[in-house]
Each structure stands twice: as C-alpha cells, then as structure tokens.
Amino acid sequence: MEKIKLYNGKIITPHRIINGGCIIIEGGKILDVSTSDIHVEGALEINARGNYIAPGFIDLHVHGGGGHDFMDNELDGFLAIAELHAKHGTTALMPTTLSSEHQDLLDTLSVYETADVRNVKGAQFIGIHIEGPYFSMEQRGAQDPRYIRAPDPAEYQEIIAGSKAIKRWSAAPELKGALEFAQYLTEKGILPSIAHTNAIYEEVLPAFEKGFTHATHFYSCMSGVSRRNAYRYAGVIESAYLLDAMTVEIIADGIHLPPPLLKLVLKIKGADRTALVTDAMRAAGMPPGPSILGSRRDGLEVIVEDNVAKLKDRTAFAGSVATMDKLVRNMVEMADATLEDAVKMASLSPANIIGIGDRKGSLVAGKDADIVIFDDHVNIMQTIVSGKSIYVKSI
Ligand SMILES: [Zn+2]
C-alpha cells in the first residue's frame, strides 16, 4: 500500500505545534506523527512549504453553499456543497435540513444515501442534522412558520425508521413531548440539540438529563434572562453556562455574534466544549444579492448583504455565508483565541460532540487522515480527506 509523507510544516496536534516533523499516511489513516523528518522509502511526498498542517475542519451545521441547498434534493447539489466547503478546509460535514414539508425531508434523507456514495471530491458526509420543525414559534427566526409544531411521535419515529444517517436533531426542549422525544433520540444514537427555544432553566435541566446536551447556534433564536411579572428566570443561554457539561456551537462569523460574545463563550465554555459551525446557506461562496433560504422550490426569499443572509424585511438573520476557514481566522483575530484553540473548536471539539472523536478531529496515529494545510492567515492551501488530496490551491 502506498505511503504518503507530509513534511516541512508546523503540525498542530492536540498538545503542541511540532516544527520540523512529518506525518505518515497509509490506507487513508495516519500511520505516524513524527517529531523529526524521517525518510520513508517510496512514499509520495507532500511539501507543506512552511505552512500549518492541521486536522481537517468538521462542520456540524451546514445547509448549503456554492448556490445549492441540501434541501434542493439534488444529487449534484450535495456534491457541489461538499466540494465548496472542502476548498475552505472542511473535511467532514453534516448536511442540515430546515423545517419543511414532510415529503421534502424524506427526499433529502434519500438523496443523502446516494450522494454519500458518490462523494469522492468533497468533504465527507458524517450524518444528517435535522433542524426543526419542533420549535418555539416565538424563536423561529428564519424557520418557516407554516411547519413549526410540537414533537409528534408517529412522525419522528417514521422519519428515524427510514434513515440510518440521522445523527443529530435540533428542537426546543420546552415543547409538549420534547423529553420523550429526547429519550427516543438518545436510544437511537441521535444527539438532541437545544434550538429555537424559549426555555427557562427549570425546563433546560430535565431536558439536559434526557440528552439535550448541546446548544445549537448558541445565542441565536434562544432565550436569555426573562421576567415574568416581577420574577426573573434564567434562559437557555445562562443554563448552558451554568451546566458545565453542556456543549455549544457558535456561528463565529463576527456578525451573528460580535467579538465580545465570542470572547465570553470562549472564556466560560472553553475550547473543549465549543464547536465552530458555519450554519451556511446556499449563498456561501457566492456574490451578494437575492438568494433563497431552504429549497429552491419552497424556500424563503432572503437578501445577502454585509456578509450575512437576512430576511427580506431585515428583521432577522437568515443563515450565514461563512466557511470554516473564516471562523477559525475570526476566533484568532476577533476573540484572541490561540490558533491551537481555534483549530480545536473546528476539529476535535465538534468530533467529540457528535461522537466520532475516536476516529477524527486530531492529528494522532490511527485516526482518519483528514488534514488541512493553511498559511499564517488561515488561507487554505490543501485539503486531504482520508489520505486523498481533494483540493490544492493553485499558486
Ligand atoms: Zn441552521
């Protein structure tokens, strides 16, 4: 079996940055991470030219890019999105749905199966993230109100029975039936995530105990401190801070969350319990202007300006147009994160949150050879998925 050697780079491991070392790849896996540049007979050599060599980025929440949305339910669209994000350093991602017609969702699950097999030039698919429709109407944000409702056991059991690819489901924990829903998800190995919610701490705690251990796009469409008559209540934001073991994900585009909030999340939750997610919609990697959130057939018209998607009346954001490289760069430049922490939030932390940290997320012998090479400003130079180079920046 052919070996590959990556050398002449600054290797970011979970514990340090190694200068002058090398990484040996065989059969799509990392065979060794060496602190010196050892000679490997017959290996294909990749010169990192002094750039950083980091674990590939893992995006747990992404709807589209390059003009496509996963819910267009087109095979070519799935592949194009995977390729677009791979150019920005993503080696694994979770196609994410929106509240939609039931049949549209079933179609997305079915296209995923085919796309997963055909996807050889893009970031790997690591399971579906269903976002909705079990949400709080008041916190729906850009989710289509026509479909928002409480969990329906007959419905979700049918959906889950029809696909093995579902690995995560975002819902509001305060709804009737949400705790039973969380228990069902957990039994099926699906991560329940708190999203589009008006819950108070007294509702979050039992939900957390039932498996709602992760907060979707932290701060966005989510309750903070509220007052009911004279009394104050902690919301989901305070709950996520209070419950140390709760993990969060942030859209670190510098727009959904301004720099002080990025710093606050990092300060309280830390890099181990925070994942960077793009939550990117179809306009990621496209010029500004009118776009559509959700499927081309049934989605909402939105406008992309100032590097973010907004509802047409500009009352709320409607998804981001960010890519993972930008989020890592922002955490360093806007939130004073170390590069190691910023990379961890884009790789090992998301891997651990979704339960694949044993095989992805860091440059350690035995893990998948999902690797990204980038310069001092996190401009992606090369992306490698399972030991296969799928993107090289032309110089
Ligand atoms: Zn989303």
UniProtKB/TrEMBL annotation:
Q: What class of enzyme is it?
A: hydrolase
**Keywords assigned:** Carbohydrate metabolism, Hydrolase, Metal-binding
UniProt KW Hydrolase keyword: yes
Concerning SUPFAM superfamilies, the annotation shows: Composite domain of metallo-dependent hydrolases, Metallo-dependent hydrolases
- Top-level taxon of origin: Bacteria
Q: Which InterPro entries match?
A: Amidohydro-rel (IPR006680), GlcNAc_6-P_deAcase (IPR003764), Metal-dep_hydrolase_composite (IPR011059), Metal_Hydrolase (IPR032466)
* Residue ranges annotated for the Amidohydrolase-related domain, each copy included: 52-388
Is the keyword Hydrolase assigned to this protein? yes
**A GO molecular function for this record?**
N-acetylglucosamine-6-phosphate deacetylase activity
Q: Which Gene3D superfamilies match?
A: Metal-dependent hydrolases, Urease, subunit C, domain 1
Tell me which EC number(s) this protein carries. Answer: 3.5.1.25
Similarity comment: family membership: Belongs to the metallo-dependent hydrolases superfamily. NagA family.
Q: Which NCBIfam families does this entry report, sorted A to Z?
A: nagA
Q: What is this protein called?
A: N-acetylglucosamine-6-phosphate deacetylase
Q: What organism does the UniProt record list as the source?
A: Pedobacter panaciterrae
The gene behind this protein is nagA
